Amino acid sequence: MRGFQMGKILFVNACVRPDSRTLVLAKHVLGQMDGEIEEVRLEQEPLAPLDWNRLQERDRYAASKDFSAPMFRYARQFVEADEIVIAAPYWDLLFPAVVRTYLESVTVCGLSFKYSPQGVPIGLCKAGRLIYVTTAGGPIGGKNLGYDYIKALSHTFYGISDVTCFKAENLDIVGADVDAIMDRAIREIHAAFYN
């Protein structure tokens, strides 16, 4: 993985702890990238899951192909990014609930994707790659479901084929050498950008 050309980097920050280890790794990722970083701190955003009224409103706008309404600002921002970094701690085999709400706001037919006449989703996002960063107190192993979900959305709906995950796990296990685990993850990040 080499650094891409200078462009717009969207940093989706789902880290709520001030001393977030996920955020530490994400900052190392962002430090390897060239471009203007635009951060969305999900905990500070007025995100809400779609309910019946909001779904009807979204459908009305989508039917008229008018995506200028404020409810589409996250999707517009996501679609226009050249690269995307999502930092989300590993919670309950997945990620914080606000990430799912955010993705619901981003995944908009006619804006971030469209359907072909055969019913196949075609991605409309500009991004050449998406990097997902996570940390876990216990083992992740083969159950990196948050990353798997992001990767599936990226490939199926957004048209982003280059999707990578950087992670550090087992950080809260009794006797774990947290510094060594984090250092190993940081070395993996640096190696990925320079190899």
From TrEMBL:
Pfam family, one: Flavodoxin_2
SUPFAM superfamilies membership: Flavoproteins
Residue stretches making up the Flavodoxin-like fold domain: 8-191
Protein name: NAD(P)H-dependent oxidoreductase
Biological source species: Diplocloster agilis
